[in-house]
Amino acid sequence: MDSLNASIGLGMIVLEAAQQAQAGKNKADIVTHITPIIQNIKSVFMVDDISYLEKSGRIGKAVSTIGGFLKLKPILSIEGGETSVKGFPMGSENAYEKVIKVMGEAIPFGSSIKVGIAHAMGADKVAAIKPKIQGKYNCVEFYETYMGGAVGATLGPGTFGIEYYEA
After folding, report:
1. Facing residues of 141 across strands?
2. C-alpha distances in angstroms, 69 versus 35, 60, 64, 95, 130?
3. Domain spans of the chain?
4. Phi, psi at 108, each rounded to 5°
5. Which CATH number applies to 40-166?
6. Distance between terminal CA atoms of the chain?
7. How many other CB atoms sit within 10 Å of the CB of residue 150?
8. pTM (two decimals)
9. What is the DSSP letter of 70?
10. Which of 110, 98, 121 is nearest to 44 (CA)?
11. pLDDT, tens only, 65-89
12. What's the number of CA atoms in the CB half-sphere (13 Å) around residue 144?
């Protein structure tokens, strides 16, 4: 079964499936339970250092140089297994606000959600954005972990990704 997710998003889907299995559900029931989660899970990522996108071949040197000078923090999302750009705010605080705005556009503020944050050596970024998320949503579950090596190396240190869905 394709989760259409990576990192903490995949982990949250696996946890849901495991909880269903521990409750005695059969395979068909588990698939029925996790399918809408897979279809509705949202994601948003903040890249802290745009130069890593250049190093991994995702953007050109000119964009990287200008983006680094302006301290742009690319905001990316995965929708239906495809990556899309949500914005290029300047500086971390503006980036956090953009991440929260993107979340609010996907799931209304005040909703009960399950959230996972994965980061690449960015525990300080998680500490900064976590209370902002908790202030806007009823977070039923909140997971934190490190990104895998491949994703972390591609997006660079300080990057974090948030996966979330309605509880």
Report:
1. 114
2. 43, 14, 8, 16, 27
3. 40-166
4. -55, 140
5. 3.30.1180.10
6. 21
7. 11
8. 0.89
9. T
10. 98
11. 888 889 999 999 987 667 889 999 9
12. 11
